[in-house]
Amino acid sequence: MRNNNQENYENRKVLVKRAKKRKKKRLRRLIIIELLVILILLPVAYLFFQLSRIPRQELDLDNIQVNNINLDELKGYRNIAVFGVDSRANDLKKNTRSDSIMIVSINKKTKDVKVCSLYRDTYVNIEGHGYTKLNHAYAYGGPELAINTINKNFDLNVTDFVTVNFSAVTNVVDLLGGITLDIKEDELKHVNNYTRDVAKINGTDYTYLKKTGKQTVDGTQATAYCRVRYTAGGDFTRAERQRTVMDQIFKKAKKANPFTLVKLANEMIPQVYTSLSNTELLSLGKDIFFYDIKDQAGFPFDNTAKKIGGVSYVLADTLSSNVSKLHEFLFNQKDYEPSKTVNGYSSEIAGR
User: Fold this and answer.
1) Angle between helices 278-286 and 2-51 (to 10 degrees)
2) Distance CA 348, CA 152 (A)
3) What angle do CA 342, 323, 346 make, to 5 degrees?
4) Cα separation values, 90 from 11, 58, 109, 171, 262, Å
5) Is 68 helix (H, G, I), strand (E, B) or coil?
6) Which secondary structure element, helix H or strand E, spans residue 91, and what is its range?
């Protein structure tokens, strides 16, 4: 009987010891999980706090103008206007012309992204100001008038925008460790000239590029590349260069770790003005690894450079046909029929 009791006692001790070990293991796992959660949440919390510092414009949707078009066909896409401004005073709201204007269209289902530059000299109708250059709209009335001008002239339904100071490109590219660009023979001299100018504006050192071809460039060189327009194609190729740099930044950011992305956000925040909420920015940010820039283009696709009153403009060969092509490019809408408003603008532009 004693042996049985002793054996039972020893078994209980073993079971208690095992239970304690399991409890310790569970506790360690819980501590590890909690630490991991904290490590994940800290950058998110910090990022959320930083995002709260971004100046925002609460756009009154009643003031956003959209032509009489079938909006159901655009519901599967999120369209965001991106304005790049060159403001040494960091005035992002208005009184500055947008050097770069892009429509970023995100397919909500596939996460595919298409980017279309709207040439800044495009001849459009700006409400209250008549026909003039597209980039004047931002200077006249900030992002709200710029968005209304885009929607009315191109049959779009944009309600969100992001405005970025061009100098932010320099810092972002440097934080990413540079990007790869293919420098052409006719670009090298101009890139180096602008590199010196960009460095002077930013108060930084600079290095000239010594060769053409594919190579890693730093932030100052990348920003200089965005500014080059004294080559064949003028502002058209300049817009293409801006899209190239945007694409390269996007690809590099997709490979970056969360802490680098937090640094990027921190760098961009003082130079960003947007209508997007913190939640919307975080939602867009968390999907960055799933986004894929499928295609990019410049608008108007078919155009003519023309002087009106001694001022150079970019005129769509016909606004209506170009708007049809824009909808096919962004939304895969075949044989899109432009609105009466666009057709009216098209007839007036054709008469110039």
Assistant:
1) 120
2) 14
3) 35
4) 75, 20, 36, 15, 22
5) coil
6) none
Highest mean pLDDT among 142-146, 168-172, 231-235: 142-146
Choose the weakest-confidence range: 56-70, 181-195, 329-343: 56-70
Return d(Cα 34, Cα 28) in angstroms, integer.
10
Tokens 């408003």 correspond to 341
* DSSP state letters, 117-169: EE-TTBEEEETTTEEEETTHHHHHHHHHHHHHHHHHHHT----EEEEEETTHH
User: How buried is 190 (Cβ within 10 angstroms: 0-12 exposed, 13-18 middle, 19+ buried)?
Assistant: middle
- For 23, 59, 96, 117, 343, the CA distances from 348, given in Å and listed in that order, are 80, 30, 28, 23, 9
Maximal CA-CA distance, the chain: 116
Strand 292-299 and strand 179-183: the pairing is unpaired
Percent of the chain exceeding pLDDT 90 equals 50
Distances (CA, A) of 140 to 120, 236, 341: 14, 24, 22
What tokens appear for 264 in the block? 């990027």
Which residue, among 103, 56, 37, 34, has the nearest Cα to 279 in the 3D structure?
Answer: 56
Q: CB within 8 A of 322, min separation 6: which ones?
A: 299, 300, 301, 302, 303, 316
What strands, in cross-sheet order, belong to the sheet with 292-299?
272-274, 160-165, 77-85, 98-107, 112-118, 292-299
Supply the Cα-derived Rg of the chain in whole angstroms.
27
Tell me how far apart the terminal alpha carbons of the chain are, to the nearest angstrom.
113
